[in-house]
Amino acid sequence: MARGQRKPIEEKIREKEEQIAALKAKVQTEERELSELQKEKQHKELEALSDLLEEANMTVAEAREILEQHIYDDEDESD
After folding, report:
1. The model scores a pTM over 0.90
2. For residue 29, what are the domain limits?
3. Do the domain assignments include residue 37?
4. Average pLDDT over residues 39-44
5. Cα gap 43→75, rounded to integer Å
6. Mean pLDDT of the chain
7. C-alpha to C-alpha distance for 44 and 40, rounded to whole angstroms
């Protein structure tokens, strides 16, 4: 029984190069979408924090001061 004609090595190389190019394009698309999702998540978190500050009638500067005080107090206690 005769075998089918084999593909020349050049054709195999070209096919692999095309597959790799398609995969690279897919990875770029997925990375872009991931970045957009991360930005959306960050935006929602900042929005929630802003809402909390507003409910507490606090400014960003006041919240920052409280957080810094808390951070530095924790550092002093661990020394």
Report:
1. no
2. 9-78
3. yes
4. 98
5. 29
6. 92
7. 6
